[in-house]
Amino acid sequence: MRLDRAVDAYLRHVTIERGLSEHTVGAYRRDLDVYLEWLTAAGIDDTTAVTGAIVSRFITDRSSIVPPPAATSLARLQSSVRGLHRFLVREGIEPEDPTSRLRPPKMPQRLPKALTIDQVERLLAAPSAEEPIGIRDRALLELLYATGARVSEAVGLDVDDLAHGDVLRLRGKGSKERIVPIGSFARDAVDAYLTRVRPALAAKGKASARLFLGSRGAPLSRQSAWLVIRAAAEASHISSEVSPHTLRHSFATHLLQGGADVRVVQELLGHASVATTQIYTHVSVDTLRDIYATSHPRAR
């Protein structure tokens, strides 16, 4: 099968049958474009001609470019290529998978950065409770920390997703739905936004079911939500880097520190594997120092 047709078929598969997001499919497409360009330069245009040795040479070449790619980028590239060839075998297009012996690069373990509880409280209090946009921003921040939602999940919420009282329906990766509790602080902040702000915002634009709206009445974008978080971090004088995922990391870390079971946190975060959630269970360096200083007889 021609390689360009194989890639198109695979991308249709992950889009339609697996329901992957447009962002994820776009990343696969960019990786596979790099793969196709390399294979074409090597005189290969058919899937039958791809062997394990050729795939290994491709990965070696990509690893040696200057500047070298990050381990995460190389791992994603391998995953995209592996996914393509596994798909061809499953569909009966090719009898063997040339990536079967391919080993992913060793990833450096990076612990997620979480804010302290005091920092979170300052961040949540940063937006003005008197200005309409401030009320909306506070509702967004409270909801993110209360539920551990990804920013994309939060801006994708409809008003009806809040119809169950003290729980919220989130749509995660691959359109998978999960139900998470929403605490009283977040519920109160969202209710204030719904009654005092959203009707006026909605009147400025076309009818939208989205919960969070921008100043012109259109659904709030991920980029705008990121700006809300950054502005709150600056206003609350938090020196550490605050990213769109910071409140999600803080949500998970604070739950585990409070005694929550890792399986429960896995369910709340929408992780497919508990191994992804377990990264939050690692003891921080500061905690190690504190325990050592108070426990070891010769620490002082």
TrEMBL record:
The gene is xerD. Residues 110-293 form the Tyr recombinase domain. Keywords: Cell cycle, Cell division, Chromosome partition, Cytoplasm, DNA integration, DNA recombination, DNA-binding. This is Tyrosine recombinase XerD. The active site is at residues 150, 173, 245, 248, 271, 280. Belongs to the 'phage' integrase family. XerD subfamily. The keyword Glycosyltransferase does not apply. Forms a cyclic heterotetrameric complex composed of two molecules of XerC and two molecules of XerD.
